Amino acid sequence: MSNHVYQTLILGGGFTGLFTALHLSHQHYPRSVILIDKEERFCFKPLLYEYFSGEMDAQQVRPRFEELLKGSGVIFVKDAVSSIDLVNKQIKLASGTCYDYSNLVLSLGSVTGYFGVEGAQEYALPFRTGEDAIAVDRQLRDRLQQATQIENPKERRKLLTVAVIGAGPAGVEMASTLADLLPHWYEAMGGNAQEIRVVLLHQGQEILEGDVNQRLRNTARKALQRRTVAVELFLGAQVTAIRPDILEYKRYEQSEILEASTVVWTTGTNTNPVIKTLPIPDEHRDQRGRLKVTSTLQLPNFPEVFAGGDCTVDMSASTAPGYQYQQLKLPEQQINSQPLPPTAQVAYQQGATIARNLKAMTLGDHLVPNHVNLRGTLLKLGLEESAANLGDRFQITGEIGHLIRQSTYLQLLPTPIHNLKVTTKWLTEEVFIRYSQSIKTADAIKWVGGAVITAVVARKLLKILTDDDRVIRN
Q1: How many angstroms from the chain centroid is the CA of residue 211?
Q2: Pairing verdict, β 471-473 and 394-396
Q3: pLDDT at 400
Q4: 60-69, 289-298, 417-426, 442-451: which range is least confident on average?
Q5: Tell me, what DSSP letter sits at residue 386?
Q6: φ, ψ at 110 (rounded to 5°)
Q7: Residue 422 confidence (pLDDT)
Q8: Four-point Cα dihedral 450, 453, 454, 458, nearest 10
Q9: Selecting from 3.40.50.300, 3.10.20.880, 3.50.50.100, 3.40.50.2300, what CATH number does the domain 120-267 have?
Q10: Of the candidates 463, 451, 439, 447, which has an alpha carbon nearest to the alpha carbon of residue 407?
Q11: What is the mean pLDDT of the chain?
């Protein structure tokens, strides 16, 4: 099957792909748009921990693409991309269907990288998708239930030990969430909550090393220790093999073994295999095989193709001290040397730029360079606790940090209707009920949506700034 050539295909429904589609719809883009993704649901990855812990539900974190795109004019196709022919402008899907395109958007994301660690793919659990969250939940509950029926302390300890691999932001958020959540689950089953053991292993010598969240390192370290059960941190620990109930690693030149029935893998990613097959020369890829894009988010040799998200490396911005990014005034096709971080807020803004440039291309207008504004970093540090680093000026932690993180991400939820539904539900549960003593319901009703959250956070923040030491000024 071959479709009309005057259409735009978007491959991948992550932040870049979905928001490109939605922006094109809002801009009344004159060409047909088809969004293709192998999953039926969008996954709002920054809130995946809330979905896993039950703080938010599937409708909030994993809405269906068909619901999000309803009334937009964007066609959704649930299928996997098997090949891309950039020369003949055609893509082929796993089902055998082929589509021609006039413009293409590559937003296929990345895949879990196991880096040759023996047994990692077979025995470790990744945590990147809604299905991953369900699998981790199922295994942990099963192991906890088994532990309640075993009297042998050594066997029970193995079942109650969870190893999290990688102390980047994903590992820190996972470990801190588990260290609050698992004791609660186990206690509800009749077990001793203090028997739960969460171990965070990292090959480097520091958590959050080389990451945009590194300013929150000390805050995160302290938070890991004050969870319901303290997280054990093994730095300089290189995982060498994972077997059933056993994790092997090297630390201080010594080979060691950790008995753990559950291993959660959060370290590193690999370039999507489909991206690796594209006829793109090495000079237009980084060392990991990701695609280098121009300042206008196009492929240098294929200007009809735009790309963003984790499958690309955006070289159109520079890095200043403290991970503050400043947009440079670049020629349209210039490629620089330092990439933007692969975060949701970057991908979200890339989607807006790609949509704007696709519309400009159809009208014969000038394309604009990608402008990324990083407003700060947000890190989940346990149930109902987060840290917010706002513009590198001050940090806010604890429950108010949680409010800021939740409200910030809720503002990014796709489509106004979905945003309104989720925001209303969150306000009811998180604000009206828990903070009814300090928030006027009339004000909340008046400003339903983003304005309400801003007002709530501002009011709560003002109180914290005046009488709480959880705000750390830099």
Answers
A1: 14
A2: antiparallel
A3: 85
A4: 442-451
A5: E
A6: -125, 175
A7: 61
A8: 180
A9: 3.50.50.100
A10: 451
A11: 84
Question: How many C-alpha atoms does 470 have within 13 Å on its Cβ side?
Answer: 18
**pTM for this entry:** 0.83
Estimate the crossing angle of helix 217-225 against helix 169-188, to 10 degrees. 20
Q: Which is more confident, 413 or 385?
A: 385
Which token pair is 242? 């994972």
Q: Which of 163-167, 210-214, 250-254 has the lowest mean pLDDT?
A: 210-214
* Among the listed residues 105, 88, 102, 76, the one whose alpha carbon sits nearest the alpha carbon of residue 6: 102
| C-alpha torsion 182→188→189→193, nearest 10 | 50
- Rounded CA-CA distance 94/79 in Å is 7
Entry field: residues in the chain? 474
CA nearest 76: which of 29, 14, 10, 131?
A: 10
pLDDT score recorded for residue 131: 95
- CB burial readout 201-218, b (16+ within 10 A) else e: bbbeeebbeebbbbbbbe
Which residue bears the tokens 């390192």? 217
| Sequence ranges of the chain with CATH classification 3.50.50.60 | 7-38+79-112+270-363
Residue 429 pLDDT level (bands cut at 50, 70, 90): low
**What is the gyration radius of the CA atoms in the chain, in angstroms?**
23
- pLDDT one-digit tens code per residue, 286-326: 999 999 999 999 999 999 999 999 999 876 553 333 333 33
Domain 7-38+79-112+270-363 homologous superfamily, CATH = FAD/NAD(P)-binding domain (3.50.50.60)
pLDDT digits (tens, 9 = 90+) for 115-139: 999 999 999 999 999 999 999 999 9
Q: What is the band of 409 on the pLDDT scale with cuts at 50, 70, 90? A: confident
Cite the residue boundaries of each domain of the chain with CATH code 3.50.50.100: 120-267
Given a contact cutoff of 8 angstroms between Cβ atoms, the answer to whether 39 and 13 are in contact is yes
From residue 244, how far is each of 118, 164, 262, 310, 377 by CA, in Å?
12, 15, 9, 31, 36
Phi, psi for residue 183 in degrees, rounded to 5: -60, -40
Other CB atoms within 10 Å distance of the CB of residue 148: 14
Interior angle at CA 383, CA 380 and CA 388, nearest 5:
30
Find tokens 């690309």 and name the residue.
312
DSSP 3-state of 457: helix
Place of tokens 């409200």: 407
